[in-house]
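Re: the pair you flagged

First of the two:
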Amino acid sequence: MKVFILCFLVVVFGCIMQANASVRSLRFEVVNSDHTRLCTKKPLLTVNGRFPGPTVYARRGDLVTVDIVNRSDQNITIHWHGVKMPRYPWSDGTDYVTQCPIQPGKNFTQRMILSDEEGTLWWHAHSDWSRNSVHGAIVVLPRARGTYPFPKPHAHVPIIIGEWWNSKVETVYKEFLAGGTDPETSNAFLINGQPGEFYPCSKQGTYKLPVEYGKRYLIKLINAVMDNIMFFKIGNHNFTVVGTDGAYTKPLHTDYVAISPGQTLDLLLEANQPPSHYYMAARIYASGGEFVTIPATGVIEYVGSYMPPPSPLLPSFPEYNDSAASVGFTDQLKSLSDNVDVPKEVDETFFYTLTVNQSPCNKPSCLASTRLLASVNNVTFLLPTNVDILTAYYRKMSGVYTTDFPDFPPTSFNYAQGTPEKNERASGFGTAVRMLEYNTAVEVVFQATNFGGGVEHPMHLHGYSFYVVGSGLGNYNRFRDPATYNLVDPPLMENIAVARNGWTAIRFKANNPGVWYMHCHFERHVSWGMEMVFIVKDGMLPHEKMLPPPPDMPRCGGEASSPPLVFGDPHTSLRKRDEAQ
């Protein structure tokens, strides 16, 4: 089998790898390993026993093969977040969308195909809530003789903002689904796996970064938190944002950032302050709900001979609900170039409402008379149960999905301020996809609604980066707002936070054939069904067609799926609640 797979690599990927690119090989063993935080020891699902997992280093255009061996007691998939996987969705790693999960005792060789990405990406599990502990950084360096569009850094420093529950995350997940309400609040936030000195039993393990005065460090910041946008600051230091989501940006000088779940930022830090110890810290931004307000901290320690202070300097943060600080930071991001290839005209325009819905819940486990769901255009997405959508599309299997995902919501109302009647808060259910012709110029306008009091939605599209051409608060106006679009230097991203009760417009060219998932990166929202799928058809030319599957694709083997919601027949599109039940 190994010889056969090697031949497959040479034949299939030889046609898409860039000149002077390398093939790098890694081995990920998914295991249960014990870890202790906040005086609480528990087993975690991890890769190679590490939390966070190993950092993947590669260069632009490389092919990275990863042998994933599942030695745990749970199903698993691994998603390479921000890697476009040109023409090869088979390794995108989304359970029941592009593959069946890797079952315990099984293995799968994934191929991470880098193309034009450069900067910071990350990898994480994409099954149930396993990504809480199964994640790590991807550092994509320039080509061997390439240069940076900023002063060359002395070192690359991955910083992952994470989260810790004293309870087992598998238990939190199951109780959250059974109860029908919001999940249990986590007990701590983390920086590189450690809570920091403001949490109990945590001072000794605090992450520390030694720096030398006068040198520059490129911080590769990743938000791996499950459900919250985070502020990040460094005591007494400013830094320069030079990239986001694997693409360079115009330099943005600032003393803080706001980063949404799934997003990455490249921060160029100059060690130019008096030698001492300084906190780096991450604290929550939240427009409502229950949450931990204690910041996670690490310590920047200047190298040299000096008397460190009794306690490092803690930076001051915006208020936890300062939406202007969160939105204001994101609005300042711009592409490095003033002549980007954003579509100036579009072939298809979609208007997608993002909603937290309510549905009657009469099960004994329900904590209230209604349960929370979520939807895009009032469709709560249901994953298939016995086959993934990509395989069904490739093999032309019927009855797995429908192709009638709506381009617009079923009704029009005051999205940003309206308070719907109780009987209007339910959604329909479906496994509906939107088909796209190859090379279609697409615009998607995301509209956050006020259902459930309104909340942010960090939207992520697999297989593509997109240009964020516009955003605003309130209801989108299709006559007025397009005139405000930035079509000169909009940021190139693959994860964008739609503001609470606001809108965001993105554009992209559908030139990557395959099956591609789009979803909110708040884990509770995707568990409730805020997701959909694009299927991009093949083009006419050989290099415009999807590549064949590898010989070792995982089989579903009759396993029940791990979709968060199973109501009625998942093959029936847009059924109302009473029909589905």
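Second of the two:
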Amino acid sequence: MILPLILRAANSTLRFPAEGDHWRRRLRHLQGSDDRKQSARTRLYDDLLSNGYYTTRLLIGTPPQEFALIVDSGSTVTYVPCSTCEQCGKHQDPRFQPDKSSTYQPVKCNADCACDDEKNQCTYERQYAERSSSSGVLGEDLISFGKESALVPQRAVFGCENSETGDLYTQRADGIMGLGRGRLSVMDQLVEKGVISDSFSLCYGGMGVGGGAMVLGGISPPPDMVFSYSDPNRSPYYNLDLKEIHIAGKKLPLDARIFNGKYGTVLDSGTTYAYLPTTAFDSFRDAVMKHVDSLLKQIPGPDPSYKDICFSGAGSNVSHLSETFPEVDMVFGNGQKLSLSPENYLFRHSKVLGAYCLGIFKNENDPTTLLGGIIVRNTLVMYDRANQKVGFWKTNCSQLLEKLHFGDSSLLTPAPAPSDPFSGNSTTAPQPVLSPSGSPDMLAGEWNVSLITFDIHVSMNKSDLVPHISELAEYIARDLEVNASQVSLISLKSESQGSLIRWSISPSGSADFISHDAAVGIISRLIEHGVHLPEKFGTSKLVDWKVEHLSERTWWRGHQSVIVVGVSVFVVFSFSAFFVWHFWRHRLGGTAYRPVDSAHPEQELQPL
């Protein structure tokens, strides 16, 4: 499965270098040589900081019903809320309605499954470490991955939820796509049908950009991909053979056995951060703090209820973080090492500009080493189940799959540091298609943004659009990967052949700004992919966009009191001067008393 997420200039053509045959061979190598297997392409949405997970879109049933599912290598079942669910939260999409799918069939009770009280239908139940749970019945229907997928719809078993608790109840995503090892896993079912190879890959976008790609099926690894053995018998999860951790080239004084406690070292795409056993965490924390001690200032975290370890003074440009924070290496049993840049173990402080916090925490009550999505940002991770290994390849995940799809050879050159597609000096991203007032310079440098505005032309009439404004805002929030509360309607005008809608994206929650990287991500998604609205709204097109830098808005906020006082003083002084002038004029210029018979000069009548 392959998914594009790149900015590409209008009418641009892809060119191979002079040694084109060599690059084409490498590209074919990466794409894989098993022509008998189909592939599907799907985009990843959301990001770690805003949502805590990445989602993909899955279509179920006939006609298809669409769902946003968290991609989770630690889960073995795929499930969505059922229309009959009495304890399900409010999620991104409507619940699945089995009675509206002509191809749906319940999985009848049998000896291989747990059954409902009536012994009619198979059931499932899943509980998670954060004490959330999901339970329901099992059904079978056609699933597909959208128009970009070469994989035709396939029948698969999935869960139809009747109950949710904890985070599963409150999250915005509809459900879970289970990619773990197990007969109910989407991977196991598709592999058993023989339609894909026994391998899948995930690629998560970088800090502040989000998005990414998922590849279901095999690809041949790049020559410089780093591998770790993954023992399928060690635990039900995807394990790594981690032996050492190095900070700035120096090995931490740890026994290798510390990474083999309980479930060992587990790589879990559904977990946000990373968690080390107590001794390993203490050693890691101390080494990082020692490295930055003379360079940065330690500050409190964004949430006082957590004891986050945060530092200020590093600047807001992610590509410069390696100048301050150390490189971290994870060394596997075969001697190969996965190098982590700062964005692979830090998250951005949500309240202090240029501050970052450690995204690796202490796993106090569990000796398992758990590596979540933060560890593999901007890293292609290949779960090669057939060969019992997991591969890592540093790259720009926001661009990976579209370049692979279109045969762009530059894909095969890893990017050592995150790049900014609007920074003017980026060498990895082509210039985006720009609107009349949109310009790369508007996001150049390290500006933070107070507001993003954009105009969309929709072929539906204004009167028909008005009742659906809230629904439109939800679709925009989903496609731009922001919270719905950040999307606001500015104006709605009738135009020939439709309507022109102006929207704004404001900072989330109590934040005063949208970070530079987050703004780049929003604009990138807006320009390259637009907003995908249901067919009932007709066609839509991006007309214009602009950003408002933080300084343009904060200057007024910073000087507001001074200006108000100054204007007040001026008004008071002006009125006082007027009354004084009027009073003296009245005294000096008034008519004096004269006797009736006194002489006075002739007055000439002046013409108008």
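The chain has ten helices and 32 strands.

-B.
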